[in-house]
Amino acid sequence: MSKSKGNGVMVGPFVREQGADIARITILFAAPPENEMVWTEEGVQGGWRFLNRIYRRVAEDREALLQTSEVFQAEALEGEDRELYGKLHETLKKVTEDLEALRFNTAIAALMEFLNALYEYRKDRPVTPVYRTALRYYLQMLFPFAPHLAEELWHWFWPDSLFQAGWPELDEKALEKDLVEVAVQVNGRVRGTIQIPKDAPLEVARAEALKVRNVKAHLEGKEVVKEIYVPGKILNLVVRG
Amino acid sequence: MEKYNPHAIEPKWQRFWEEKGFMKAKDLPGGKGKQYVLVMFPYPSGDLHMGHLKNYTMGDVLARFRRVQGYEVLHPMGWDAFGLPAENAALKFGVHPRDWTYENIRQAKESLRLMGILYDWDREVTTCEPAYYRFNQWIFLKMWEKGLAYRAKGLVNWCPKCQTVLANEQVVEGRCWRHEDTPVEKRELEQWYLRITAYAERLLKDLEGLRWPEKVKAMQRAWIGRSEGAEILFPVEGKEVQIPVFTTRPDTLFGATFLVLAPEHPLTLELAAPGKREEVLAYVEAAKRKTEMERQAEGREKTGVFLGAYAVNPATGERIPIWTADYVLYAYGTGAIMAVPAHDQRDYEFAVRHGLPVRKVIERPGEPLPEPLERAYEEPGIMVNSGPFDGTESEEGKRKVIAWLEEKGVGRGRVTYRLRDWLISRQRYWGTPIPMVHCQACGVVPVPEEELPVLLPDLKDVEDIRPKGKSPLEAHPEFYETTCPKCGGPARRDTDTMDTFFDSSWYYLRYTDPHNDRLPFDPQKANAWMPVDQYIGGVEHAVLHLLYSRFFTKFLHDLGLVAVEEPFQGLFTQGMVLAWTDFGPVEVEGNTVRLPEPTRIRLEIPERELALEDVRKMGAELRPHEDGTLHLW
Q: By CB neighbour count within 10 A (0-12 exposed, 13-18 middle, 19+ buried), where does B110 fall?
């Protein structure tokens, strides 16, 4: 039974053997919701691994989490803490929008991705206030999809039900990328500077550069034959004519 | 460290949520706002498998999400418990449909609970309970009062397997939607209808504001099938009779070189010349035995018989022959057409086969049409050979010709719809009895409201409910013998039951006030929750349930029972999977599939067939999917 529409898999026996949350994740993650579900053994395995990984992450950190506060200043975060915080709110935004539009499969994909980020973070960092917040939001986001597991883990730390916990609030500021100053040269001579995100693509850098009056003046009537762009550092426009 | 063990976790929290009542809805939501999340309620069809669970899981995810967002949420569940599936299954296994139904409900509820899907079970609605179906009867009586429920005699679709009549929507490619191997027969019967056509324009117009998939809207638009055109009167030569003809192309009137009457048209036999009578009669009889789909199939030989009579084209004054042919349907338009072979392909084929004149009256702009024509030119163009209208662009010509006809008193502008009234009586047991009484003296008399419900009698013997070509209740005098509410004399109850789609046309309103024993629902409670904010279900209901429900909501709105005019603000439908069976080679080009015609396709869910022609008519299309199936969109 590697592939089916789930028509041969009876609910009762499956749930008693494997679990309701696994069934829910398998169903929701199998395909875009408007398509027919394809029930596969691989899907079931994937669902189990995902939930088990969540359980392990929280279980491993249980004691440390109980001894950690959530007091921190978002603006003051740096390095990996700042990155985790940004990624958390990106995930929250995505999951919220996907839920509104009933795109449950991509919402779950975003939760899987963020779980990886949590594991990555814990490779070099201890349990911190921002990490505890990330896990709290995580359980809140998990709740509609795998409610039993989310509720169980939630009660390790908080007395009320997740039904009473509300939905996390999005911090729009966390979504803003850090801006860096990039010098703009025309034929090797600096003609201005631009403020763009560190990882902005060439298109963004070019568009910003063209807004700088001095740069524009030096491009007037000339043809750009080459663009040399080192993200976060320099944009050099080579012109002819 | 402990291990993830779902069994240690899941039952505990399921009990906790139930006890805390987190999915219990208030009658009158306040606060931040309400969200009504609804999944189409199921037939209780036995143990659930994972394929069934998808929609319910989606509904649960959305309901929980809305709840934690701070909304008050209504997420109810119920059972579409009457109807053929329960009855057929019950007969197969020799148990009463009620026992079979309730056992299935029990199992399905257990499965839903196991999945952690939370409903407000206090609001459970089961349509086969008298507490529910008495309001089917109540609504029926209101429709009767308003002239929207009526009894009429006519040719109806009859499935010999189901032993009952079917609605037009339940006939697919001339076959029963439940029995792909069973051609539907035509029978002349008196049946109950609901006048859904009175709402055609509103059903069409109000689609605009709905947050629905464009495809479903397109399917409903095509099903309602509004066409603007003209009704034109053609006088019959030598008689005081005029034949009204409906056309969507009044601009081609000058090219009408003959008339065609449907075989069932009452004038067909009346106008037949003495020497032609027998031939015409034989043709009419043969046509009656054919299905609508057979008669309309593309590429089929266009048969017909000349009546030996002539009419006059009111535009040209010309004498034109009158024929009868089975490609013209009596139910559409006026049951008669003016044939314009130069600009209608079917008329063209008919004219070529029977040696009738073809006259071009629309010229193709840019590149003139070949002489003689090789096929009909159906596109717009410039009017020619049309007297005072020569040189007029055809769209403008439609309006001008209509104005001219109205001025001369030989025609008028008219809108027609493809939609037909909904035939709702069924000759089966497991349904809502129609609350009417037949009295020798008074005719058809409604059962007084205070005597509702008319209870479905409990027939103990399964053999008693087996369909026998007439209503099983006809064999039970203890049910049908009654007295006339009007004159008090002996009378007979109507022994038919309602189409189960009647039950599902308003159940979403009942959830807002499920225990009301005076009204279908309290308007205040319904207004607090309606409309459904997100409805989730299968696209196979695009022209059945989703259209009927819109009709009912509008009717109940007109009665002053509910403020909204549309029941489902947001709709989410799943594409359906079609198996690669029953048809020959398929050409796949990108996103389109070309199938050999005529083709029958089997839908996997539900058991229903669809002709490629129907797919097109609905404005839908088939797309190949990477898993090797075809999807209907």
A: middle
